[in-house]
Each structure stands twice: as C-alpha cells, then as structure tokens.
Amino acid sequence: MFDPTRFTSDRARRIDASGIRRVFDLAATLKDPINLSIGQPDFDVPDTVKEAAIRAVRKGINRYTLTQGVRELHERITRQLDEELPEWGTAVRSGEQSILVTSGVSGGLVLAMLACVGPGDEVLIPDPYFVMYKHLVTLAGATPVYIDTYPDFQLTADRIESQITPRTKMLLFNSPSNPTGVVSPPAVCADVARLCSERNILLLTDEIYDEFCYEKTPRHGKPRCPTPATAGLDMLLMRGFSKTYGMTGWRLGYAVGPKPIVEQMTKLQQYSFVCAPSMVQVAGVGAMDLDMSPYVEAYRQKRDTVVSRLTGSFDLTTPGGAFYAFPKVPERLGVTATKFVERAVQEHGLLIIPGSVFSSRDTHFRISYACDNKMLNRGLDALLKLARI
Ligand code: PLP
Hints:
The chain has helices at residues 10-13, 18-28, 47-58, 71-84, 86-94, 104-116, 131-139, 157-161, 186-198, 259-270, 278-287, 293-310, 337-348, 373-388, and strands spanning 34-35, 97-102, 122-127, 143-148, 168-174, 202-206, 217-219, 222-224, 235-240, 253-258, 324-325, 350-351, 353-354, 365-368. The protein is an alpha/beta fold.
C-alpha cells in the first residue's frame, strides 16, 4: 500500500514546528482575536514602491535575472555601504567582498548554512533565538549550540566565549533581536566581532530589523543602528526589505561578505531559488531611497506604550528595536509561559507566543506591537488582568 510518510526524509521529520503551529491553530478558532503574535509590520508597501514594481512588470522585467541580482540593485546596495560602512563599499568595489541578492533574508540564511556548515560543525545561536536559526542549522547537518542570554538578552563576548569548542564554525548574531527586541550596543558589537575574528569563527550578522532601531548611535553623519560590521570585514552581513518596507510577501534581501563564501552561496542559489523576484529587485532600488522614519517613530511610541504599561506588573527588558517585547510571566502565578499563553487565548482571545517556541526556557512570552494602538491597548489591558490573578 502507498504510504506517503515512507517518502519523507529524516531530515524533514526531525523538524518540530508544533510550538508555533499550536498558537496559529488556536488563532483559527477565535472570532475577533487580539492579535499580538504577528511578525510583520502593520503598514503596507509604500505606493511608490508598488508603482515601481507594476511598471517593471509592464516593461517586461518578468524573466530570470542574473543569479547574483540585477546590476542597479547591486549599485544601490554598494552606495548604501559607501555611506554607512565605507570599508565595505571599498571592499565590494575591489572585489574582496561580494553581494548576493536573495529571496528575503530567509533565502540568504538557507544559502549561508548550506554553503558554510555541515556534519561535525557547531553553530552558536543565542537563546532566545529566531526560530528559523535552529532548524536551518539542523537541516544543514550541523549542530546548534545555544548561548543563554537571560535575563538581559545581550549576546556578549563573555557569554559566547564559554561555548566555543574546536568545532565551532559560525555564530548567528541578530540585533535588533527577534524575539526580544534587544539591541546590542556598539561596544558589544565590536567585542563580538573581535572575538569571532580571533577565534576564527564566521560571524553572520542578521540585521533585518536595522531600521527599527530606537537606540541608534551617530555614524558617518547620521544616527544608525550599531553593527559588528563597523569592526571588520570578516563576516557575513544580511539585510532585508521585508520589515523595513512592509514587503514580507515580496521576498527580497541581500548578503554581503567575503567573496569565496558569497560565491558558494551564489552557486547554490543558481540551483535552488535561481534569483530573487525580478520586478521586486527593480522596485527595491527605489525603496532604498525612501525615508521610513515616520513609521519607525510610530513604532517607537508603541514600544514606549508597551514598556510604560507593563513595567511594574512584568519583568521586562526594554526593547531597543524591532517590534517585539519579551516579558517574563510573573513567578508568583506559578505557571509556565505555555500555560499563561493558553489562558490569554482562552480568557481574553489574546494571541501571544510562548517563549518555549524560541528558547529552551518556558518562562517568557513574545508580544508583537506591530498593530494599531487600539488593538495594542486591548492586548495590554488583557495582560495586566492576567498578571493580577
Ligand atoms: N531574520 C529574522 C531575525 C527575522 O525575524 C525574520 C523574519 O521574521 C527573517 C530573518 C526573515 O525575513 P525575510 O525572509 O522576510 O527577509
């Protein structure tokens, strides 16, 4: 008899997606949920970007592009690097570093894992982590090694150092962080870059939330999000368009790094994703000229609302970026985060995500404040009620 499960690989079956699926299954049963679980902005793609994509489609930019991405986008990314990370811009021009346009940062992460790590390699991941990290490392056949960052969620050089072994090959660094929203200050970024360089570890810096940073520091004439990339070139830098321009469904990102690494990623892209969507690449060029600061300012205010309303009732590390907060379930309630989230859903129709989805601990929960203020305040009201029980 035909048994479809016989045809699925151990590799696929080993991935357990049950945690997040349970939240979405619960969501499907609710009529008017207060949804603070969403990992994408609540604003739409700016009109000029939509129009640029439509124009590109009408002009016939509908075919495969070069695997590495269209020339105009490479030039625009290089200009961006010139402006904020001049050594990177120079290294791209000299050919020491290369750019690969990817299908979202997710696409870049898949390629980086497949190109760089495999059986016997260890990849350092902060705990809590962006869920995809753990699974991509496993998919590539390597071993995830977690670095506990509780209670302040800073991935410091000290914390990293104690987990390095002769097998450590890569470190995944993510600031501003999903799920905690924590931003690494410049000194931490520099220390981490130095440590990785000294210990011969490839640092992958996932900067998808770089625009949503409320703790920017001046760099080359403008406030910018701190990054380890100011401390050297021996790393892979990934940035995306999904969050900054509200275009999560359009699938665009890029990776910049040492040429031999990016070459391997490009080869793998050629035989998998082929290229990022052609019209989206063209629209992405103009998107990079837009000033998104009013959107970021609106999110900063939402962040302030979350912090001011929850402080006192929940232990909460002030998130410096992204659009998440990661409060701790009050210990006196005597429940796990999973239980707390079940109560939130059942008693208030409030959707939040238990920390166990992103962590070995089940003590905190993630809220996303990427929603309108009315929904956010309803959600915060519900959380305050739950904390009072
Ligand atoms: N990295 C982090 C930390 C994220 O939170 C996300 C999305 O939630 C991604 C990467 C993937 O983004 P995309 O593939 O849409 O660029």
